[in-house]
Amino acid sequence: DAQQLDYIKLNDGIIIKVKSPARSGVKMLKLQVVSDHILHITASPADSFSSNKSLMVIETARPAVNWDVKEANDWIILSTKSVNAKISAVTGEISFTDKEGNIILQETKGGGKSFTGTTLDGEQSYIIRQSFAGDENEALYGLGQHQAGVFNYKGTQVLLSQYNTEVAVPFMTSSKNYGILWDNNSITKSIDTREYEQLSTLKLF
């Protein structure tokens, strides 16, 4: 019975209404299959999705892709020929694996996504956070042209903001052979987003 499913099936993917969203968490998730290797994930803190068009992804006609979806024990698995996305219907947490079940990338426990309400120029807006469980053997590349003299950004902080000598490109690639396009128009801190500490908190030797 379709009424018992925890997702709505679309022509190119699924929509999930998260059962137990965190206080500042995601309420709705949309996963769309772009190709055998590419999934488009959209998260919303409301009961609908924004209708604003992307400023960085050009909509073009896409060839049909074979994909499948199944559900078991509050987990929904969307599969293509190359990748599986396993989604918790309870929290919205997502992990990505290859066809052998090896983890490519996984969100931090509980979902890794948060929306904190704020006001910007008198309008309701959100501070958005997305986090993933790290792999200490992983190297992270890309993100544009920056002046820090760093090639592997693992463990460093990158500010994605466009100004003189700095070119922000919100696309990151991993030595584990995956990439993330952060389709968001806001100034973004990426990789290690912790605030810098005062020098007085350190012991110098």
Number of helices, where a helix is a run of at least 4 consecutive DSSP H or I residues: 0
What percent of residues adopt helix (DSSP H or I)? under 10%
Biggest sheet, open or closed, and with what strands and sense? 5 strands, antiparallel
SSE order, one letter for each helix or strand: EEEEEEEEEEEEEEEE
Report the average pLDDT across residues: 91
**Terminal Cα span:** 67 Å
Annotation, overall tally of beta strands: 16
Please explain how this structure is put together.
The chain is mainly beta and 205 residues long. It is built from no helices and 16 strands. It has strands at 7-9, 13-17, 28-33, 39-44, 68-72, 75-79, 83-88, 94-98, 103-106, 113-120, 123-130, 140-145, 157-160, 167-174, 179-181, 188-191. It starts with 6 loop residues before the first strand and ends in a 14-residue tail after the last strand. The relative contact order is 0.13.
Would you spell out the secondary-structure blueprint of this structure?
Layout: E1 7-9, E2 13-17, E3 28-33, E4 39-44, E5 68-72, E6 75-79, E7 83-88, E8 94-98, E9 103-106, E10 113-120, E11 123-130, E12 140-145, E13 157-160, E14 167-174, E15 179-181, E16 188-191
Antiparallel strand pairs: 1-2, 2-3, 3-4, 5-6, 6-7, 7-8, 8-9, 10-11, 12-14, 13-16, 14-15
Concise description?
The protein is 0% helix and 42% strand. With 205 residues, it is an all-beta fold. The model has no long low-confidence stretch (mean pLDDT 91).
Key words describing this protein structure:
205 residues; mainly beta; 4-stranded antiparallel beta sheet; 42% strand
